Amino acid sequence: MKVSISKSRVRGKVKAPSSKSYTLRALMCAALARGKSEIISPLTSDDTGTAGDVLREVGVDVHRGADSWQVKGGSFHRAKGELFCRESAATLRFMTAICSLIPGKCHLTTGLSLSIRPVKPLVEALRQLGVDCSCQDDVAPVIVKGRKLRGGITELPGDISSQFVSALLLISPFAEEGVRIRLTTPLESKPYVMMTLECMKRFGIKVKSSPDLREFEIAKQEYKPSRYVVEGDWSSASYLLALGAVAGEVKVENLNLRSWQGDRMILDFLNDMGASVEVDRDSVTVRKLRLKAIRADLSDCIDLLPTMAVLAAAAEGVSEFVGIDRARLKESNRVLAVKEGLERMNIGVTEETDRLIIIGSVPEGSIINTHDDHRIAMAFSILGVLAGETIIENAECVSKTFPQFWDVLKSIGGELKINGK
Question: Which residues are catalytic?
Answer without folding.
Answer: 303
